[in-house]
Design brief:
It holds the Pfam family Glyco_transf_61. The protein has 210 residues and is of the alpha/beta class. The protein contains six helices and seven strands.
C-alpha cells in the first residue's frame, strides 16, 4: 500500500524476511504495476505478506502450500475480520494462514485530521474523539462507516520485527504437510439468479446503488 495503512519500516521487514527464510523478497504495487505482472509474481510465491486490505484477494493466485501472512494495525482484532483467513481455508486453496497484530501503541501513527472516510475523527464530539483515541480494541460493529474502525484500520504501522518473526516461526511450525493432504475439488462459485439492481438518492451529494 502506498497511501494509507502503510508499513513504515518496509525495507527492514523485507531484510528480516530475506534473512529468516533465505529467500528472495519481491514487493508488488497495485497502483504502479499491471495486474498480470502482479499475478505472475504471486503465482510463483511461497509466501504473501500484506497489511489487512483488499489487495489480499490476490492470495487466491498463490500456489498450493503457500503461506498468507496478514498484518493488522493496533487495536484491530484479527478474529473479527477474517475474509482472507476464510479464503485461505476454502476447499482446494490449500494455503497456510498466519496473522500478526501490532500490540504496541507507540509503533502506530494515526491520522485524526484526515477526512472521515480516511480515518479522520475531527468531525466527532470531543468526548467521542477522546474515547476513540484511548481505546485499545475496536468493538464489534456492523458498518464499514464506523468511525472507530476507520480510525484504527487506516493507521500506519511500524512493524515490530522480533514479535513478527516469532509469530511467523510459531505459525510455520503448524504448517500442514500437503503430501499427506488429499487435493480437494476445485471451488466453483454458484450461478447468480434473479439479480436486481436498485438506485436511490440519499442527499443532493450522495446516491446509493444496491
Amino acid at each position: 500500500r502506498s497511501t494509507t495503512r502503510l508499513i513504515l519500516n518496509e525495507a527492514e521487514l523485507i531484510m528480516a524476511l530475506a534473512q529468516e527464510f533465505q529467500m528472495r523478497v519481491v514487493t508488488v504495487s497495485l497502483e504502479e504495476q499491471s495486474f498480470p505482472s502482479i499475478i505472475q509474481v504471486i503465482s510463483a510465491a511461497s509466501m504473501l505478506v500484506s497489511m489487512h486490505g483488499a489487495q489480499l484477494i490476490t492470495s487466491m493466485f498463490l500456489p498450493r502450500g503457500a503461506t498468507v501472512v496478514e498484518l493488522f494495525p493496533f487495536a484491530v482484532n484479527p478474529e473479527q475480520y477474517t475474509p482472507y483467513k476464510t479464503l485461505a481455508s476454502l476447499p482446494g486453496m490449500d494455503l497456510h494462514y498466519i496473522s500478526w497484530r501490532n500490540s504496541m501503541e507507540e509503533k502506530t501513527v494515526t491520522h485524526p485530521d484526515r477526512p472521515w472516510e480516511q480515518c479522520g475523527i475531527a468531525h466527532l464530539e470531543k468526548e467521542e474523539q477522546q474515547r476513540i483515541m484511548v481505546s485499545t480494541d475496536v468493538p464489534r460493529h456492523l458498518c464499514c462507516r464506523n468511525p472507530e474502525w476507520l480510525f484504527r484500520i487506516y493507521q500506519d504501522t511500524l512493524v515490530d520485527i522480533p514479535s513478527f518473526l516469532k509469530v511467523l516461526r510459531d505459525g510455520m511450525k503448524n504448517k500442514p504437510n500437503l503430501k499427506k493432504t488429499k487435493i480437494a475439488n476445485t471451488v466453483h462459485p454458484g450461478r447468480v439468479r434473479e439479480a436486481h439492481c436498485q438506485t436511490s438518492v440519499q442527499t443532493p451529494h450522495e446516491a446509493r446503488l444496491t
